[in-house]
Amino acid sequence: MQQTEKIFLAKSEVKAQDLEHRRKINFNISQYDHAFQKGRKQFSDMDTARERAKNVKWRATENLDKYLEEFERIFTSHGGQVIWAENTEQAQEEILKICKAKNARTIVKSKSMVTEEIHLNDFLKENNIESIETDLGEYIQQLDGEPPYHIVTPAMHKSKEDIAQLFHEKLQVESGMTPEQLTLVTRNKLRQKFQEAEIGITGANFILADIGGIAITENEGNARLSTTFPKTHIAITGIEKVLPSVNDLGLFWPLLATYGTGQNLTVYNTIFTGPRKEAEIDGPEEMYVILLDNGRTNILANEAVRESLYCIRCGACLNACPVYKNIGGHTYDTTYTGPIGSVITPHMRGMKEYKHLSYASSLCGACTAACPVKIDIHELLLENRHESVESHFTSKSEKMAWYLWKRASLSRKMMDLANGNTKNKVINKMFGKAWGERRNLPDFAPKSFNQLWKERRG
User: What angle do CA 250, 255, 258 make, to 5 degrees?
Assistant: First the structure.
């Protein structure tokens, strides 16, 4: 068993029994569910919208090289610069080069899962560069020294009382503040940072090939401030975020808003096509877009799981997943958590080390039903399991156990060979420690149905 799997199982055991955690997460997800039911009413035919979105992402993914090159050609013609990064180390080094060239000591950063993926804040801190999260949820997590708990709502596992106590301890403000007061404290802290920062860093929700732009959607305005005050804007994004045309936003912006937060449309939706032009009064003097691979081409090359690249990072599958609701986001110990994270992480970071994530699922299909671009997530989890077995990443003892189970299940004589007491002893021996401490193990009848049928019916 890999060390990552041992840690995952140990954390899962603890978190699954944490009733206070379950109360908080279930409350917050119930709020999302209520908002989603209202937001989805803007679509007269949700199924058709999802099908259209899947078709657009299919076309973009099947022609990814063409669209990325088209984006680069047009974006650079606007005065922007495109950097291709194969892995985490290359992305980090490219950002550091820009920081050194600008003598940057302070960076403001809007919400970006890709920057979490490459551990950018820690890397910049090692190089004596201050990187401040400006999204409220991310700011809370940064104060607490924790990674995001959720793809969309980073501090979903915290109550307002938890956050008030955190601010009291870390920022020395009075205890028991209301959410409104806490927001004002954050605003006052960040306004000065926006003005001081030499560089602003963002992600990108979508890459728009036909106009050479990136689209960013947000609710707080922090991304706009991060790209307006600093003289340099760096956007880092995964290569899979491509949409063929700016016209596709008419579908994807409402779809992302509804499935992400239950809104008709997020508050701020911005398209960046390069640095500030001569006639423009605000915006950065220089703009870079870093296109990150970091294992994504492994998924692209694998036709069986390629459609996982369609993901628009709305987080809906996490909110629907019964496993996620019980073990929480931090248990996965990966950037991308929940069902979609369990699909893509083994291909991005290694199947041998992360195959266990694909088994952390009930295969109920709720994730697939919740996906706005109709990714067959539960089928892809099964594909990952199949691939791990075919790659011989399972232990000899596990293989032998399944072999014996299969032989016994296919043989009526073997099934009837042991009586109920013997079966109970075997099950208790095999699963008593893992399942018996908190659950009732099955109690086998003294005789099987087959035996009773023969006795009674001859």
Answer: 130
What are 200's strand-pairing partners?
Answer: 108, 233
pLDDT at 454: 86
**C-alpha gyration radius of the chain:** 25
Strand order of the sheet with strand 130-133? Answer: 81-85, 286-292, 232-238, 199-202, 106-109, 130-133
Looking up tokens 């950063």 gives 109
Q: What is the pLDDT of residue 438?
A: 74
Q: CATH number for 43-294: choose from 2.40.50.100, 3.40.30.10, 3.50.50.60, 3.40.50.10420.
A: 3.40.50.10420
| pLDDT score, position 66 | 98
Gap between the Cα atoms of 243 and 56, Å rounded: 7
Query: CA-CA distances (angstroms) from residue 49 to 11, 57, 308, 374, 409?
Result: 38, 12, 18, 10, 44
Residue 437 has pLDDT above 80, yes or no: no
pLDDT of residue 441: 83
The beta strand positions in 46-114, using DSSP E, are 81-85, 106-109
Q: Work out whether the CA dihedral 307, 309, 313, 318 comes out positive or negative.
A: positive
User: Residue ranges of the alpha helices (H) in 78-178?
Assistant: 88-101, 113-117, 120-126, 136-144, 160-171
CATH 3.40.50.10420 domain range(s) in the chain: 43-294
Rama region for 396: left / alpha / beta (φ>0; ψ in -120 to 50; rest): alpha
Q: Give the length of the chain.
A: 458
Stretch 387-395: mean pLDDT, rounded? 89
Cα dihedral 151, 154, 159, 164 in deg (nearest 10): -170
Tokens, residue 3: 């060390």
Question: Does the pLDDT at position 432 exceed 80?
Answer: no
Label residue 304 by pLDDT band (50, 70, 90).
very high
* Cα 97–chain centre separation: 28
Q: Give Cα 440 distance to the centre of its chain.
A: 34
User: Do residues 15 and 21 make contact, with C-beta atoms less than 8 angstroms apart?
Assistant: yes
Per-residue confidence band for 145, with pLDDT thresholds at 50, 70 and 90: very high
C-alpha–C-alpha distance, residues 373 and 311, integer Å = 7
What is the Cα–Cα distance from 136 to 155, expressed in whole angstroms? 9
